[in-house]
Amino acid sequence: MKPILFATEHRINLKQGAILYLFFILMLLFVSCKKEKGINHIEWQNESLSLTSDLCKKFRECADTEWKSIPENLKKFTEGRLEETNCQKRFRESNAYKLIGNDPKLIQTSFQECHKLVMAMTCSELQSGKMDSINACVTFQQIQNR
Fold this sequence. Notes:
The chain has eight helices and no strands. By secondary structure, it is mainly α.
């Protein structure tokens, strides 16, 4: 009688192991599917990096005249964020670069329009927050924050 009991217990453990294994596989698939990798669109990536470079340069130029207004402990942080390499590195990790978070065409057009309008602004307009009133920039920022 003991061998039968042992075999029954063994089958239950195999069933439990199989269920746990299946559950683990499903969780891995769910997590990997949930994590959006984005669209690999080389032309957009090149264009968006160029637009980002222009914007970083504009923000650096506008910030250079106002470094006095930035607290000493934030100067290096701010300078680092606006530095060309760091600016582009951060953008490469963004939703816009990967075309994640909305319709890819909307991402592209809102960024292009925002870029065009920001580049036409004066530094005083940027410093006064005029960028926050531009629909294309607001839409783009919402996409980036998703």
